[in-house]
Amino acid sequence: MQPFLRLFCGWVAGLSLAAATMLATSATAHAATVQSATPTPVGPVAASETRYTNGMNIVTEQTDTDKLIAMDHVQNLRDLGGLIGANGHRIAPHRLYRSGNPALGTPADFARLASLQLDDVVDFRATSEKTSAEAAFAERFPWIADPVLAGDLSPASVVPMLKRSTPQQMHQFMVDLYRRFPQDYQPQFARFLKLAEADKTLLYHCTAGKDRTGFATVLLLSALGVDRATVMANYLESNRHNAAGNARAVAQLQKIGVEPEVVQPLLNVDPDYIGAAMEVIDTRYGGMQHYLTDVLHVDVEKIRRGYLVAVTE
């Protein structure tokens, strides 16, 4: 399983339309034609379903917990402002943003991002996920690279693996991947939360803004005292916000022989995935608050003072 994880980890954590297009272009010329099994598809979680995952009651309602900001070529950009945190206080608007890769946005996208007056932009992607076309973004915004999930993400390595995998293997891969987040990448997530301690206006992202960004959001919202059901609902909203891009990605990959049922678990977020990470936090580290304060050494009160505001009638 280790070579499999090493080859897939960064890529599957944020497969976007751009990544899928790159794969399709390269693999048409180079990838081997390995047949893939096609067992029962694993689709996204149904709206308003409640599922028990790893002993936790996870609410999966498709409700809006934050504000989606419409962009041309930046997916899943959301303002976390308005969520209820500790002591009934709300997260201040226009301070904390999550997204997919913003670096390939249009000039209009860059203008919108500039209007957010960001202090820092945190990038969780591996170097192999980036392209030279992102230079303009790097020149304009305070971009901090702090990779989570480095490895060989080239199409030559990834596509043959996809072709000989099953949906069940991909689902289990994602569960195993999420288990690694709270154990293997503590320095990266601690540094991210230290930026929040400094009361900065932040945008943080990976490729699709769903897995690495999703886990970072779970930590941040938990530090702010948002209840677990709302944290989980916020995580699951990526399925809705990424749906159109995911459909295009599936179509591109299907052209090179990757079955939709195989790639779908990589494109979706799922209660099983985040449930696996939370189980590690609860069982190995004694719960979220112990994990934040004793493992990541986060000053939760400082983060709350920076971002929470009293609710006014």
UniProtKB/TrEMBL annotation:
A Pfam family: Y_phosphatase3
Residues making up the signal peptide according to the UniProt record: 1-31
Record's keyword annotation contains Membrane: no
Keyword Signal set for record: yes
GO molecular function, one term: phosphoprotein phosphatase activity
Organism domain of life: Bacteria
Keywords: Signal
Classification via InterPro entries: Prot-tyrosine_phosphatase-like (IPR029021), Tyr/Ser_Pase_IphP-type (IPR026893), Tyr_Pase_dom (IPR000387)
SUPFAM superfamilies: (Phosphotyrosine protein) phosphatases II
Name of the molecule in the record: Tyrosine specific protein phosphatases domain-containing protein
Annotated source species: Paraburkholderia caffeinitolerans
